[in-house]
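Dear support,

I submitted the protein below through the web form. The confirmation email said the job was done, but the results page showed an empty box. After a refresh the structure appeared. I'm attaching both so you can tell me whether what I see now is the final result or a partial one.
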Amino acid sequence: MANKVYYHGSSVLFESFNLDSLAEGSGIKFGAGIYLTESFDTAAHYSEPRHGNADHHYVYTVEVPEKTEDNCLPYYGAPVPSGIIERVEARFGESLPDFIKGSGKDAEGKGVSLGKFLRKYIAHRLSGVVIEKLATEKQVDKNTSLTAEVKASEFLLDIGVLFIEWPQGGWSKYPNCIKNVAVLDPSKVHVVKIEEVDLDAKAKYVQGSRRTIG
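What the results page shows now:
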């Protein structure tokens, strides 16, 4: 199966990916993993750290295995694949709340965060939260710790889920839009090329400024 190309932006040079700095980048908003995007421009933008004023901006071109219905958890606007639901339920020995098993859209056709709900449900359960306190969207959609998110990613990896995927903007356009992914296993992210780029005052990529350095 062919690999797929993504991009990752950083102000730091490194040779391989790891999860040592999870809380320093984009955090764990979409789960504990390596955050990649299909858009070079987006990766360049995120090479500027949250505190700003980086001296260098790098875009890593990387390859990862192809996504499949069995190994990818969609975040917005799509249902959680039935195979993933079944594997989670089998591992926990319990049925998931019905709202996690929906169509991925609400009554008005807007995207629903079913993948997020499943990820957080797993994180809460692995943290010792009882089923009775995870019966509604509001209960599941509470903050989770970094430790819990790492455990959730390890759980998902163990049942064959490698990716969490979300659309870049415009959820109504899913799946025909730029997509971002969190890769839960850093060893599956292989660096193909490293380029240094320039950003403007708004942290946007300056077209034509790509310089290959590795």
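Response: this is the final, complete result; the empty box was a page-load delay. The chain has two domains: 3-66+186-212, 72-161.
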